[in-house]
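Running this now, will post back.
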Amino acid sequence: MQTQGHDYTSNEDVRVGVIQHRPTESGVRKLDEAFPHLTEGQVIPWAEMEAALHEHRDSARFRTVVSVWRKRLLEEQNIHLASQHRVGLVVAEPRRRILDASRYTNKARNALSKSLTIASGTDTNRLSECDQVRQKAIMHHAKTGLFRLFEGAKKELPEV
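Update: finished.
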């Protein structure tokens, strides 16, 4: 059955709004086969990934498959593929890995700070009881996360 351009496997799926997506496994396997031996400093051009996947780099499918591949390589083989603007991906060397890790930490700190600002600036009296509980939980987790990020930075990072 087809609804709004999406294929559904049964009427039940239509009722609950389940959309069947193409699995990424076959695309990830194609990338693994195209780039079997990754070494530090190796550049993987966008064009070669496009050729392996038969997808254009601007397509959602390309971005999804490459994202899953990068995540799997990091989790399973500790290979961090860093983006190199207009070129492709590069197998990150130790310094680049730390620079990227630092950037992700700063993004997390900023996201937690923004979450705390939004939640604490919301008028509790205008929230339902359920949303008041959610607000308190957000504020607690954001404060705890920020504290851990800042404390970890003080203890683990050397002065520069």
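Residues 1-15 have pLDDT under 50 and may be disordered. More later if anyone needs it.
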